[in-house]
Amino acid sequence: MSEMRQLLLDTAVRLFEEASEDEVFEAVEEGRFPESHWQAIEENGLVDMLLPEEDGGAGADFGDAMAVVRAAGAFALPMPLVETMIARRLLADAGVSAPSGPLGVAVGTGPASVLWPERIGAVVVADNGQSLGWIAVGEVDFECGTNSAGEPTGRILERPAIPDRQSGEAAAALPALTLVAAARSAMIAGAMERILDLTIQHVQGRIQFGRPLARFQAVQQMVAVMASQVAVVGVAADSAIAAVEAALDDEAGHADFMVACAKARASEACHEVTRIAHQLHGAIGYTREHDLHRFTRRLWAWRDVDGDEGYWQRKVGSMAVEAGGEGLWPLLGGS
C-alpha cells in the first residue's frame, strides 16, 4: 500500500467512524443532514481527492480514492461523498468551477435521482454527448421521497438546460457514468465485506442446541456461499478500478467493459448476500438495535442506483457482440 493511500485511509476511517454513530443514522432517517460530519470530511480534503494539486485537490490516483470509497461502504456512510467526489473531478476536467458543498450527479439519458435534494447545492449533469455542467438545485424539479435506507432522495422529473457559464465540454477519458459505476461497485464491495464480518461474528457467538451456529454444516455452507459472492464482487471492483486508472493514465484497455461487468456482478450479488445475512442472523438482524440493517438496506439502494444489474448486463452483452469473434477474447482479458 502506498504512503498516500495509507494516509487517506487513516483519515477516512477516523472520520467515517465518527459519522456512523447511532445518533447519526437516527437523524438521517428523520431527514436531518449530518452537517458537522460533512464539514469534517470536506475540511480534510476527501471530497477533492481526485482533483490535481493545482486545483486544490490531493492529486490522488483513482485507486487511492476508491480505497476510501470502499471504506465509506464499509461504514454505510449516509452522505453523498462518492457523488461529490466524482462530480468535482468531472467539472474540473471540463474546465468548470464547482459550486461549494455536497453535489448530486445525473448521468446518462434515463431517469435519475440524487441524495439529499434539499441539502446539496447543485446537480452535475452529463449527457451521452459532450455536454457537462451543473445546475443549481433550486432550478431542478424533484419528486422527493426516501430510498430503502431511509435517506432523503429526489427523482429528477425534467432536466433543465445547463446555463452556458456553468457548462463545458466533457473532457474525461471515460464517460461520467463509468466513473460513477466504478465507485459504486467499490462501495458495494466495502459494505458486503462488513456484512460478511458481522455474519461470521454472529454465527461464531450464537449458541444453538448447545453449540455455536458456526459448527453446523448447513450454516458453514451458507457462509461459504456468501464469502464467495463477496470475494467475486471485491475482485470485480478491483479489476474495474485498475482498468479505470489505466484509462485515466492514457493506457490502452477496456475500462468501460470492466466497469460494466463489475457493476452488473455487484448489483446481482446484493440479493444473495443480504438474503443469507438476514437468514443467519434471524430476527435480531431486522431490529434497529443491530447494525446489519444499515448495510443491507443500503445495498438494496445501491443495487439499483447508477443502473441495476439488468442495465449493466445488457451493456456487457452489447459490447461483447460489438467486439465480434476476434475481439471478444482481448475484451475479456482486458488487454
What is the topological layout?
Elements: H1 3-18, H2 22-29, H3 35-43, H4 62-74, H5 81-93, E1 103-107, E2 113-115, E3 122-126, E4 131-136, E5 141-146, E6 152-158, E7 167-169, H6 176-205, E8 207-208, E9 211-212, H7 217-248, H8 255-281, H9 292-304, H10 309-333
Parallel strand pairs: 1-3
Antiparallel strand pairs: 2-6, 3-4, 4-7, 5-6, 8-9
Describe this structure in words.
This protein has 335 residues and is an alpha+beta fold. Helix content is 56%, strand content 12%.
Short description, anyone?
By secondary structure, the protein is α+β, with helices and mostly antiparallel strands.
Features:
alpha+beta; three-stranded antiparallel β-sheet; 10 helices; 9 strands
Beginning-to-end CA distance, first to last residue: 25 Å
Q: Oligomer, anyone?
A: single chain
Give the helix/strand class.
alpha+beta
Low-confidence stretches at least 5 residues in length (pLDDT < 50)?
Answer: none
Helix tally equals: 10
Number of strands: 9
Shape: globular
Mean pLDDT: 91
The helical percent reads 55-70%
